[in-house]
Amino acid sequence: MSGTGHLADDHPDPTATPRTTSAVVVGAGLAGLTAAAGLAAHGIEVTVLEARDRVGGRMHGLQVAPGGWVDAGAAYLGERHTELLALMADLGLKTTPTTMLGASRFALGAEDAIRDGRFPPLNAVALGDMFELLDELTAAVRPDAPWLTPDAERLDTTTAAAWADRHLTHPDARLFFPLFLGEMMAADPADVSVLHMAFYLRSGGGIRYLNAFEGGAQQDRVAGGAHLVCERLAERLGARVRLGAQVTAVHQDGDGVTVHAAGGPYRADVAVMAVPPLLADAVEFRPAPPVGRAGERTARGCAVKVNLVYPAPLWREHGLSGWSVNAEGPLLSTVDDSPAEGGVGVLTGFVTGSEAHRFAALDPERRRAAAVAQAARLFPMLPEPIGFHVTDWVNEPYSRGCYAALFGPGDWLGNGPTLTVPHGRVHWAGTETSTEFFGLMEGAVRSGHRVVAEISAR
Amino acid sequence: MSVDTTGATAGAPAGPGAPDGPGSGAEAVAAIFRRVLESSDVTADSDFFELGGDSLIATRVLSAIARNHGVELSFEDFLLAPTPEGLARAIEAAR
Predict the structure, then answer these.
(1) In chain B, which end has fewer C-beta atoms inside a 10 angstrom radius, N or C?
(2) Residue A377 is inside which H or E element, if any?
(3) CA-based nearest residue to A323, from A311, A340, A301, A338
(4) Interface pTM, i.e. ipTM
């Protein structure tokens, strides 16, 4: 990250005179910028401190053609994402539908197939048995307070991997389960508790809504790229947003809070921590919060996104949608992400779960060779790509994972009850603090609105 | 903060272990449709996909049919007859 190049030393300089402001927001991702814009709209003086040299956090656009952008991070939204849609309307941004016309490609073991629709060539009853069990877990969870779910203690101490081992007997279900969990929540089943899996699926609107493109959580993209939401918010905030300002410490006293950042300290009435839990816990708090933001088993969301750029979406000419599901990596699924503006064809590959760690550890040449070769096996009409981008969210120092933090065994019972409880003058935002649409852009926006309500009620 | 985003409170969702209604034939399949679609608006000739069903929850119908009727239908069987009466005929034919 070039944003770290000119940072001051990590130790707060107590002799520097702090700049004063009413509220400091730490993190210029969607949650922090939503919070800051809301505070500014309430007439509260606000400063946003961002470690990177850009805004957007886990939302990041890559230009792949003149005027054509693809999402290297968060991308999709659906009709239930009402607060994001309202924010986009306010910012003058539109949605563009995710087109999914044509047949799907499946490489699932012995069955190498092209099929209409998105249903894989696996035993339907076995997958149905699995989805029935998952639906039962999902329906039983307390979405507003997962730690109060009946039998929460058992569900919180069991990993999804152990659950699958016990309950999924058919080989097709055992093959598909980790692919499904990777796709839905960028999780290796060994990393999440059953409670977190059930909560995540429920929070996002249930298995069907979270899985679906049309009529579901992947119905649309942001026209021009999801990063525009953050860039427009940042334009509105202007000089209130400070880049290259990594926060290392947050000290409170009776009169206010001092936020120590690269470039000098800020003194404010309140602070909003709008960073993922693993990053929040890397900040020194005085006094320390009674409970950390992450637990011992909280893991990084395991997603690496690969964007392969071709002269055109050539698969469409062959009746293929670009959608594929694959038992072998690195690309466990692919989707047509071609910009609506045209110009190029973009095939986006998702590398999730344990495969993300394996892929991220390869050197850039091997990553490229593996991904390009797999794309050509799946779609033999494809030439050598004209552009190739890998975004390794797992090892991003200022994200530490994507889509969202993975709550492992013990996390929901240990950290859940204080998820949104202010620590004195410090308020908590970020998609991981939203029990509604946790892990999604919508969750980030809702968390931003919540802290604005908390602070304006102080 | 406690908005139910799933709509699951309408018609308490029955778990996989719960029976999907009495009888056999089209009415029994219609009861499965109602449960997985979380909708009461199902008749013998309702098309699953027109009611908002998709391939993922279609597999849940096939799972329930296998559990309740001892018949394993394929996804293709489902696509050929995605109504309660169509699936009831497929169940009979497979016996």
Answers:
(1) C
(2) helix A364-378
(3) A338
(4) 0.89
The whole-angstrom distance between A367's CA and the closest CA on chain B is: 32
- Taking a contact as any Cβ pair under 8 Å apart, which residues of chain B between 40 and 69 contact chain A? 52, 54-64, 66
Cβ within 8 Å, pair A124-B5: no
Using the beta-carbon criterion (under 8 Å), do A128 and B63 form an inter-chain contact?
yes
pLDDT tens digits along A139-163: 999 999 999 999 999 999 999 999 9
Other Cβ atoms less than 10 A from the Cβ of A95: the count is 19
CA distance A400 to A156: 23
pLDDT in tens, A299-330: 999 999 999 999 999 999 999 999 999 999 99
Tokens 């927001």, residue located = A25
Report chain A's mean pLDDT, rounded to a whole number: 94
Which residues in chain A are closer than 8 Å to B61, comparing Cβ atoms? 128
Q: Is the pTM of the predicted complex or chain greater than 0.80?
A: yes
Whether residue A403 is preceded by a cis peptide bond, meaning omega within 30 degrees of 0, is yes
- Tell me the per-residue pLDDT of A248-290, one tens digit each, with 9 for 90 and over: 999 999 999 999 999 999 999 999 999 999 999 999 999 999 9
Q: What is the mean pLDDT of residues A345-362?
A: 97
Nearest CA among A437, A435, A446, A439 for reference residue A393: A439
Backbone angles phi, psi at A110, to 5 degrees: -65, -30
For chain B, the residue count is: 95
In chain A the first and final C-alpha atoms are separated, in Å, by 37
Q: Which residues pair with B64 in a beta bridge?
A: none
- Percent of residues in chain A assigned helix, strand, coil, to nearest 5: 35, 25, 40
